[in-house]
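Q: How would the structure tokens look for this protein?
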Amino acid sequence: MTKFTDLALDPRVIQAVTESGYLELTLRASALRAAEVALKVARVNYEAAEEARRLGAASLSEVINAQLALVTANSKFLCPYFSQSGLCVTSRRRPSARSSPD
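A: Here is the predicted structure in token form.
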């Protein structure tokens, strides 16, 4: 029977764990770069919506939608930093629609 320590020292296992860790790291780095770009785009869109509203070319709902997009992008950018601490909420559960008893 193979012991765990023997398996942990197997070069194939070490290589597989190393490659897995590297792939996870590159995936997270790519996701972080994408979130950073999305945040910058959302910030520019929000500033443009505010300016358009100031000039009378946009409605308040357009500014609010741009602000919501900015908050969402900011949350997605910051979430990886706080997910381990439990401070990041990635999704909210909606209350289920329950029918009242007759």
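The chain has one domain: 12-83.

The two ends are 63 Å apart (CA to CA).

Upvote if useful.
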